[in-house]
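Hi V.,

You were right to ask for the full record rather than a summary. Here it is.
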Amino acid sequence: MLKCFATSAGGLSELLREELMSLGAENVKAQPRGVTFEADLETAYRACLWSRLANRIFLTVLEVELENQEELTTEIAQIEWSDHMDSYGTFSVSFSGKGMGIEHTNFGALKIKDGIVDHFMDKNDERPSVNTENPNLRVHGHLNRNQLTLSIDLIGYSLHQRGYREGQQVKAPLKENVAAALLMRAGWPAIAKEGGTLYDPMCGSGTFLVEAALMASDGAPGLHKHDRMILNAWKGHDADLWKELVAEAKNRQLLGLNNLPKIVGSDASHRSLDIAEEAILNAGFADYIEVKQMTAEQGRRWGDWQPGLVITNPPYGERLGEKEEVKVLYTALGRFLKNEFEGWQAAVLTCNPELGMYLGLKAKRSHNFFNGPMECKLFRFDVTEEFHREPAIKGGADLAEGVQSAYPDLAESEGAIMFANRLKKNLKPLRKWAKKHEINAYRVYDADMPEYSLSIDFYHTEEGGDWLVVNEYAAPKTIDKSKAKRRLYEALSVLPSVFELPVERINFKIREKQSGSAQYEKLEENKEFYTIIENGTKLRVNFTDYLDTGIFLDHRDVRAFVALKSHRKSLLNLFCYTATVTAQAANQGAKSSLSLDMSKTYLAWARQNLILNDCDESQHLLKQVDVIDWLDMESQATSQGFDVIFLDPPSFSTSKRMEGTLDIQRDHVDLIQKTMKLLNPGGQLIFSNNFRKFKLDEASLEGVAIENITKQTMPRDFERNTKIHQAWVFTKA
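Predicted structure:
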């Protein structure tokens, strides 16, 4: 019996072990990068012709434990090399591993070469030549510490090079033996015997198609290049046996072609299909494999095919910026499978396992593979309704775009149509009102239908056209999450058509109770700002980077009220946010202003709002402070007075004072009293807040004239939700 070793790609050893056993090999043992086995010469030849998984087949001629480097050359020289090559022949040597001070492959190969030359020089004083390109014999040595294994390569090239790609100026993304292994794991041999169809919807250069046809037709993968295997030049070669095995392989494939099942492929790229068709022709399957230019997004297969296997290797976004596009592709592929291949088996290879979630199918099995150096995973599916699930979709600000890709027909559902009708009903009068009053940003919908718990704000910008900002109110724990998600997706699905704008201009956010500094935390960092005009004032807005856009739409009339009151007067804007009130007041003739906030980010934004409106920065000042601390000091000093003060504090906020936090219900009296001390005689404090349960403690504010202006400052677009803010005017006697 001959000792042999078959090398393989990572992850294929166990499959290769099973394959070699089926070919008659004995004492077969899987190793990390291949399989050791014993075989007679016929079985070794069958491995060379029939292995779909091996890279190379080696015949072991020496296994020895060495004492030192010198023994390596000595042991090599003692092999009867004349049984393997003539003294005037040519050979090449490769080497792997290290030990006994041998650290470089070239040095190890040199020691082996010296041993072979020494053998022939000692025997008949003749010296064979080294030929690395086309030798009569290829020798490989592997050293593991002091254990040397020396083998003869029976193939001379990697068996994944079947021969049907010769002459092509393209490197296939999937090696042929890896593709064969994937087909085996996916159950193709059994499916083919039952006459099932194989389909690759992203077939690229056609590797799956050809390998599937080779399997189904009982074709030997080594047959195409059998006469170029180096074993033909080996002195120990049995040419008659080899000729007999080759003839048998040819006959088996001729018979197998009569029963070849349907094999089809498609791809979006015409160039890829040209390459695939050339490979199919070279492999002899031009009359048996059908290919067509088509994308998975088109979502319709052609012809009446017997259920079988869908297998494919989609892109996986390895290049920067491609990942989001690939998610959309996987979603479309999953939809294609569920719509057109119910009852089939499916297998999808990806080097980014996260992408598997976007298929919307629950995998029954997964297997790890290596395609070259890249670790990949093969997901296997039963395409049946019980394994359908909602695909993962692009989330975050781009959720609407993800919904459009994952559920292109959702806008036609009953719930979506009902929601669209409600939006249209709201829009018709609002658009007329907005046009009449030159309002460029307004609320269209605010949880009008409780089951669709959203707010939808429309913005018309000077630079970027129309935009929508959609906020989802966090659902109570008692609400079924799947139903809430379905309704959200229904709502998002109709927005592009109702508002006649691209889905890319719809930004989605989840709105829930904010505490501490959460209102200042970034969601994104796109830094894309646009300009809207309100009350004749230019204001910068940002739709993606923060929870809020830089302007509170429900305060539109409050801003106008403060601006009117500030004409030719001094203004103090506390908790100024992006200073939209200050910008409008300055634009309408405020004499001077001081705007305070603790956020450096929002004050920078505020400065841009002032610059945008050509405000005199020497008269309109911005200052970064803790407003609570500043009020404590200034209310005691009373060194500066203001004609108008706008106080719009957060409902809750952390602070060094006020027992560590600001609670507007608990602390508003103290806050108002301190602020009133900063008013000039006859001055007015406009106080507002958005805490819906807020109740003003008028009894504790004796000696102050109080006017509730909530109703007159509630804009038309917020009349459905009159608790969104409250506002008062306090006048100092």
